[in-house]
Amino acid sequence: MSKWLSIFGMGGFFQRNTQKGSEKILALWQEADDISLSILCVPEVLSACNRLRREKKLDQKGYQAIKDGFFRDIEDTDLINVVPTIIEGAVSCLEGGTMRTLDAIHVASAMSVGSELFVTSDPRQAKGARAMKLKTELV
Description:
Layout: E1 4-7, H1 9-18, H2 22-31, E2 34-38, H3 41-54, H4 60-73, E3 78-80, H5 84-96, H6 101-112, E4 117-120, H7 123-131, E5 136-138
Parallel strand pairs: 1-2, 1-4, 2-3, 4-5
Helix pairs in contact: 1-2, 1-3, 3-4, 5-6
């Protein structure tokens, strides 16, 4: 049986490259047969990197290295587009708990592919995923 891993939200993916918990994410990544990401992860990661650049915590060279690595990493992932069925799922998530909009979209995206494990570094996102009965790992 294949292991389908979903890494959602900026935190989980960005953390893989730069912050604590990156070893755990890398191990989960390597164990997975399939990996899915919401298409929203792309601008979330780049937004976080640009914030660090503005704050002078990341120089242009570091930014470019993270950006290039990120795009290499996601080449073999399944990017989940935000389509009407995802929005319907997100509405169900919002009605079933106290999630933020983007968190609901990420959770609905994972649900749409039958994810076996939802990985995030955001405690609120993890709580929302668990409320929707997704097996969740907070890293």
